[in-house]
Specification:
This protein has 388 residues and is of the alpha/beta class. The chain has twelve helices and 16 strands.
């Protein structure tokens, strides 16, 4: 699993960067200190341009290569999560209730490491656009940056991203052409009836039994409305109603997460939820409202760019450490918006044994950072070799 020699030489600097970021996590679009730290490192590195304040706290930095050529985009997300850390590490979060539980501190570090190497060597043509994105976990920072025009403004022609993967062997890469991560939507339902005493249900219109019937019916959508060879998940994850065992409540709510890979299937799942809620409400004599929130679309890798990225990963970690047809993930990722705007690929990089993503004991493995940085750097050199 060889990192590029120059990148391996400043691995300790990368570790220090990552652990600093880990101590000071920030949420969503409010990554002001994180962005300031990144911008300071980019200035030390000597990139050619730094554009700040995109989508509130996002950054796009540019490095010029040798002569004319296209612009390749490399993306790292930088926001944290509202989770209380339990690692006990010396570099643990200093902010109660916030932590980097998904490794975005490591993603930023990998991209900064690649930036340092590329700014020193410039062994490529055209330009590299380094994209530091806020609000991946919540808020859709990827969509916001695309909507603010980064692809056209910086003439980005293709775009790539990496996510760390705990409990995948250190340095192993996984990716797949086509859909790699699912779309995610949320249905929130409020059911209103007529409350009263639990001893006189005939005088009430019970929202509880209506909610139970709706939930049971909704859980049949995948089994009875989705083609068996398609992938979809509909999970009711919250039900809230009632205040005492002898009171029939006036109303109640429930919510579900809905995930799939195909736009037509996504529309079908929405339609069926609305139909089931409306039909069940009519049958039980209650009123019901559905608030259906479209979330991130499916993350869809370009076939040719995925094959190219996998070949570069094999140069870093060896062919036996790259799975180029990995199973799809039902999780979601707002890098999807960048892949809707430009061809590219998204890959997972193994970080070895440890707590899973979004777990309070999670900590990014610093040994993976030079490998991810080497992948990014070699990707640029392979995609845009010097001309002449």
């Amino acid at each position: 699993m060889p990192a590029l020699n120059r990148i391996a030489a400043f691995a300790e600097d990368m570790k220090a960067w990552r652990r600093h970021l880990h101590r000071y996590p920030e949420l969503s679009f409010d990554c002001h200190e994180t962005a300031a730290f990144i911008a300071a490192r980019l200035r030390e590195i000597g990139v050619d341009e730094i554009h700040e304040g995109i989508a509130s706290t996002g950054i796009v930095a540019l490095i010029d290569g040798q002569g004319e050529g296209p612009v390749i985009g490399l993306r790292a997300d930088m926001d944290a999560l509202a989770i209380t850390e339990t690692t006990g590490a010396e570099h643990a979060s200093t902010r109660p209730g916030l932590m980097h539980a998904c490794g975005h501190d490591g993603h930023v570090t990998m991209l900064l490491g690649a930036a340092r190497y590329l700014a020193e060597t410039r062994n490529f043509s055209g330009r590299v656009a380094l994209i530091f994105q806020p609000a991946e976990e919540e808020g859709g920072g990827g969509e916001a940056m695309v909507r603010e025009g980064i692809m056209d403004r910086f003439a980005i022609s293709r775009v790539f991203g990496i996510h760390n993967a705990p409990n995948v062997p250190l340095g192993h890469f996984q990716t797949t052409p086509g859909p790699i991560m699912a779309s995610v939507d949320t249905a929130s339902v409020r059911v209103t009836g007529k409350g009263g005493h639990g001893a006189t249900p005939h005088e009430c219109t019970d929202p509880v039994v209506a909610i139970v019937a709706m939930v049971q019916a909704i859980q049949t959508i995948v089994a009875r409305n989705v083609r068996a060879l398609d992938e979809a998940v509909v999970s009711v994850t919250m039900i809230h109603t009632g205040s005492a065992s002898n009171i029939i409540p006036e109303d109640g709510t429930f919510a579900a997460t809905i995930r799939c890979f195909k736009p037509d299937l996504r529309a079908l799942l929405k339609r069926r939820i609305h139909e089931i809620v409306a039909g069940t409400a009519a049958a039980f004599g209650v009123a019901a409202e559905v608030d259906y929130e479209w979330g991130y679309p499916a993350t869809i890798n370009d076939e040719a760019e995925t094959a190219f990225a996998a070949s570069v990963a094999a140069e870093i970690s060896g062919p036996g450490a790259v799975v180029a047809d990995a199973p799809r993930e039902m999780g979601s990722e707002d890098f999807s918006y960048m892949l809707e705007a430009r061809p590219g690929a998204y890959l997972f990089l193994g970080t070895g044994p440890g707590a899973g993503l979004h777990h309070p004991a999670f900590d990014f493995n610093d040994e993976a950072a030079p490998l991810g940085a080497s992948f990014f750097a070699r990707l640029v050199e392979r995609a845009q070799p010097p001309r002449g």
